[in-house]
Amino acid sequence: MPNDLRAEEDAWIRAAQQGDADAFGLLFRRYHERTVRTLFAMMGSEFEAREAAQEAWVKAWKRIDSYDYTSSFYTWLHRISINTALDAIRVRKRNNHRAATVESIDESPSHEANPAQRAIHRERWDELQTALAQLPEEQRSALVLRELSGYSYQEIADTLSIKPGTVMSRLHAARQKLAAIWKKSS
Questions:
Q1: Theoretical Cys-Cys bridge with 174: which of 69, 139, 156, 184, CB 3.0 to 4.6 Å?
Q2: What pLDDT, on the 0 to 100 scale, is given for residue 16?
Q3: How many CA atoms lie within 13 A of 140 on its CB side?
Q4: What gap in Å lies between CA 50 and CA 37, rounded to an integer?
Q5: At which of 89, 106, 123 does a domain end?
Q6: What's the confidence (pLDDT) of residue 98?
Q7: Which range (29-33, 54-58, 131-135) has the least confidence?
Q8: Which pTM was predicted?
Q9: For position 179, which CATH number holds?
């Protein structure tokens, strides 16, 4: 992140830590949809992703005083978001509740694309979501953070509270399983 944006964000965080809800709202506007996209890729349901994101933002607001600037705000927020989503997934599994159908959010091609390109893109996105849903949650989380959110190995390790070596092994296993799933479906 450029230094001027980082300085602006740090000012918002300091204000939010002083109780300024408007400053926290600026952070929300900057990162909310990005957070929802990540959670959607993990959960496979836009509704569940938005619910988990909302819960994560409430937790972040309540815990804003614990943000210590050792990682980026985005990494800190996503650690909360990912853990919230994982909790929701565990509850869903425990209740044997199936997720809502896969829907695309901000993952469609540009409006300039012709209808055939949009249909192909949507089909591929749906195939990806179906394949991701078949991965164990630990592997899916690492893969989504790396490939869809662009996290570094260290950021993934920090977010999931695991070692970088564990991140690498989970990513390797996830990629192998994903390739096998796609090969089987072709």
A1: 139
A2: 95
A3: 21
A4: 9
A5: 106
A6: 36
A7: 131-135
A8: 0.59
A9: 1.10.10.10
- CA–CA separation, 170 and 174 (whole Å): 6
Whether residues 63 and 143 fall in one domain:
no
Alpha-carbon torsion (64, 46, 106, 178), positive or negative: positive
Span 144-176, pLDDT tens digits:
888 877 888 888 888 888 998 899 999 999 988
Residue-number span of the structural domain to which 2 is assigned: 1-106
If asked whether residues 96 and 21 sit together in one domain, one would say yes
* Shared-domain flag, residues 121 and 100: no
DSSP-based three-state secondary structure for 46: helix
Radius of gyration of the CA atoms of the chain, in A: 17
Tens digits of residue pLDDT in 88-127: 887 777 664 333 333 333 444 455 567 777 777 777 777 7
Q: Which helix (H) or strand (E) element contains residue 50?
A: helix 46-63
CA separation (Å) from 172 to 75, 110, 140?
Answer: 22, 31, 11
Nearest to 130, CA basis, from 101, 109, 150, 108: 101
How many Cα atoms sit within 13 Å of 21 on the Cβ side? 2
Structural contact between residues 58 and 45, judged by C-beta atoms closer than 8 angstroms: no
